[in-house]
Every structure is written in C-alpha cells, then in structure tokens.
Write a structure and sequence with these properties.
Elements (H helix, E strand, L loop, with lengths): L1 H30 L4 E8 L6 E7 L2 E6 L1 E9 L26 H30 L1 E3 L10 E3 L1 H4 L8 E5 L2 E2 L5 H9 L5 E6 L2 E6 L2 H6 L5 H4 E3 L5 E4 L4 H5 L6 E5 L2 E2 L6 H5 L6 E7 L5 E7 L8 E3 L8 E3 L3 H28 L4 H4 L3 H5 L8 H19 L7 H14 L5 H30 L1
Length: about 450
C-alpha cells in the first residue's frame, strides 16, 4: 500500500507539472496564432500510443501511456516528434517557423516560466497553509550542533551550540540564515557554548568564500546519537543484522557516541570489512562484521526528529508570498550549486544523481499534503532549471539558438536543428538510463 500511495502521488505531481508546463507553451503559441496540432500528457509512443485522445478544433488533446513527460506539437517546429515532412514545404503563416524570433522565444520560454513561478507560488501556499517548522536553538542544548569540515577546520567543534553570529542572536537551526549572514551581511564572528563555557570564533573572508560550495544541510545540523531509524534493504547494515532502533556505539573498537562521528572514520575504510559495535533497544550488545560500500557507507541513517520539540512559524497571505519566493530561490541556488559541484567533480555523481525512483522516495507513504505540495514545488523548480539547460531537445537548447538569432539576425537552418535535436534527444535518453541505472544499483 505504501508503494501504491507513492506511485499515485508521483503520477499526480508529475501530471500537474507537465500539464502546466505544456500550457506555458500552448498559451503563447495560440496568442501568436500558431497552430498547435497536439497537447499530450505523457508520450503516445508505439506500441500503445494514446490511452485517451479527443480532437477539438485544430488540436488533438490526449494522454499517452509512457509517463516520462509530455509535449505540445506545434506546426512548423522541429521537436522530439522529428516530423520532417512538414518542414519540406514553404513556411505557412500559422507555423512556428514563420513567426518572428521574439515571438518564438516567448513560446519556448513559456513552459520554464510557468514552472518557475508555480514553484514559488506553491512554496508560498505551503507556508500560508502549514507554516514553517523549525528547531529552536534552545532545544539543542543537550547534544549541540554538527558542523561541516570547513567550519571544523576554522574554529568550530562538533557539539558547539551557536549563540550569536555577526553580533545577532542565532535562535534557530537554519543553515540558510547562517549562509546569508556570512555571505551577504559580512558576519565573521560567532559565539558558541562549548563544554559549558562561552567561546568566540573568528573566521576569514577566505573561509566565507568557500561556504557557498557546501550543501545547505551539510553546513550545520542538529547533533544526535547514532540510533538507527532507516535501514536500506539489502544494504551492508541490513546484511549484517543491524535493525531500526539499534544504537551504533563503536567502529573497529573506537567509541562512537554521535552520528557525526561515524562518517569521518568510515570514509577511511571504503569497501573494507569492519567491526561495528551495536546496542539493541533491549540493551543487548554485539559486535557485527560489516562490509562498507565503495563510498564508505553502511546503508543506515540516524533518527533525527525524536530528540527535539519543533515550533512552527506562521505566515499571513501577504507574508507568505515574499517568504515563498525566497524559499524557492534558495532551493534553486542550492540545486545550481549541486549541479556545478557534480560537473566539477567536487561531489559524486553516483551518490547524488537519481531517476524517478529517487523522486518517488521524496513523497510520504501516508500521503501528507504538506509534503506532497512541498515536493511538487521543489520538482517544479527543478523542472524549470533542467529544461533551461542549453541542450538541444530541451527548451534551453531552442532558447540558445533563438537568442543567437535575435542578436545576429541569422536564423539557424532547419537541417542543423534536426541534427542538434537528434543528438540532444539521444543524450537525454542516455542520461535518463544512466540515472535509472544508478537507482537500480542502489536498490540491489
């Protein structure tokens, strides 16, 4: 039943995003009197083609059987349908290729624009309807906070409780607030509680410039004991017999008290067999032999939320819109930073790239509407970003060629566009297969 719930949520979210994205192309196309031959949710590829179709006016509306996206087929445009016959004759007034460059540009950026603003709108509605949960700093007194290695190298210690940053109180666990104060407000001094004493930490401009390279949730987080909450099926932990509720207390004889102590030692023993000390919920102790993954992981995660009482910040409708826009923009910049880091090799592609399987895991099996709309907002932003990449067969590829035409006054030939779209299409298919393969590899 959990799987059915997740699949249904995924299909509903994907359907909303696809229909509105394609509507972003459809509406300006009709506005500029361009003929739209098809408007499809999902792909109507052979052998089954469409599950449903109905023609109204000049446009066929339908639902395909292959849930990998959707499309609008615009007359006189080279797209993934690769319909070359219509391109052999002279351009007709109702065709895409007959329209002015700026009109074609508006048609092509319509889908991305809709997805971007939809994401901001949904974030705002989530804040208005449910507010934003956060952990007050006062709730972290027992264990303190956990910090990225960059901060650890520059004065912070695991377990420090951050009191002030840049002379202002730091009263909640908020990595984005930390980043904003350091990057935009120039904060270079922090005060922390360490072992019952107040300490002052100062860091340089050089350290501050490296902070954008750190993923948001890695920058600082709540420190917790390593009590297992999730165990991956067929992962090293499950194979060794580690169960939900077990507490990991040692690694090759070295005491482990907190979750943040595990990764630094595990990363030095990638693919090796190690001894992990475990205490069960009943209090039974055991030493288990575990073979780590090539990434130095065991396929288990720690219980996080059980140690803290969260509070909720509420928003009026007027407050929700700017807060939602900020939330969406922060999410977009994080994704862009992650993409840049993967491209440069700073973080592993194998560990961070995923397919529909990874996306499905974002939804809550119990169908929590707050989580559903938050994930949908996030996917909408990601869809806008990915579609704007300058790859032929994506909106960004067309936009790149159209901007070239607007600047130079020279139109890219239809033959070149056909070749570029073909190459881009197979590149995307290859990327999708690669991402799916990574997800399948993680499962088994």
């Amino acid at each position: 039943m959990d799987t059915v719930s997740i699949v249904l949520q995924f299909l509903l979210s994907l359907s909303i995003l696809i229909v509105l994205h394609e509507l972003g192309h459809f509406a300006p196309a009709k506005w500029f009197k361009t003929r739209v031959e098809k408007f499809y949710l999902f792909f109507d590829a052979p052998p089954f083609n469409s599950l449903f179709s109905r023609k109204k006016g000049e446009t066929e509306y339908g639902i395909g059987w292959l849930p990998l996206g959707g499309y609008v087929k615009i007359s006189g445009m080279i797209d993934e349908s690769m319909d070359k016959e219509q391109m052999k004759g002279p351009a007709q007034p109702w065709e895409f290729r007959a329209k002015k460059a700026w009109q074609r540009l508006i048609i092509m950026i319509g889908g991305v624009t809709v997805n971007f603003f939809l994401g901001l709108f949904l974030f705002a509605m989530v804040l208005w309807g449910w507010g934003r949960e956060y952990i007050p700093s006062a709730e972290l007194k027992q264990y303190g906070m956990s910090y990225d290695s960059l901060l650890l190298q520059n004065g912070f210690q695991q377990g420090d409780l951050l009191l002030t940053l840049g002379g202002k109180p730091f009263d909640r666990l908020d990595p984005n607030e930390f980043r904003k104060r350091v990057m935009l407000e120039g904060a270079r001094e922090a005060t922390v509680i360490r072992n019952g004493n107040q300490e002052t930490i100062r860091f340089s401009d050089e350290v501050a410039q490296k902070i954008p390279k750190i993923m948001k949730n890695d920058l600082l987080s709540a420190r917790v004991p390593f009590v297992v909450e999730l165990v991956s099926d067929k992962g090293p932990a499950a194979t060794a017999g580690i169960k939900k509720g077990d507490r990991i207390v040692s690694f090759n004889g070295q005491p482990i008290e907190y979750f943040d102590q595990f990764w630094p030692v595990a990363s030095k023993h990638k693919s090796q067999t190690v001894n992990i000390g475990v205490v069960s919920e009943k209090g039974d102790s055991s030493a288990l032999s575990v073979t780590l993954t090539p990434q130095g992981k065991i396929g288990a995660n720690a219980k996080m939320g059980a140690y803290f009482k969260k509070e909720t910040q509420t928003y009026s409708l007027a407050e929700a819109f700017p807060a939602g826009a900020k939330m969406g923009w922060n999410f977009l910049t994080d994704q862009m930073q992650a993409f840049k880091m993967m491209f440069r090799g700073d973080i592993s592609v194998k560990d961070n790239l995923g397919s529909v399987i990874s996306i499905g895991k974002l939804f809550d099996p119990s169908w929590d509407w707050r989580i559903f709309w938050t994930v949908t907002a996030s996917l909408s932003i990601i869809l806008a970003f990915m579609n704007l990449l300058p790859i032929p067969a994506l909106d960004g590829g067309y936009v790149l060629f159209l901007i070239w035409e607007v600047i130079t006054g020279r139109k890219v030939s239809d033959q070149f566009m056909e070749r570029a779209v073909t190459v881009g299409f197979f590149l995307l298919i290859g990327l999708m297969i690669f991402a799916l393969g990574l997800d399948v590899w993680r499962l088994f």
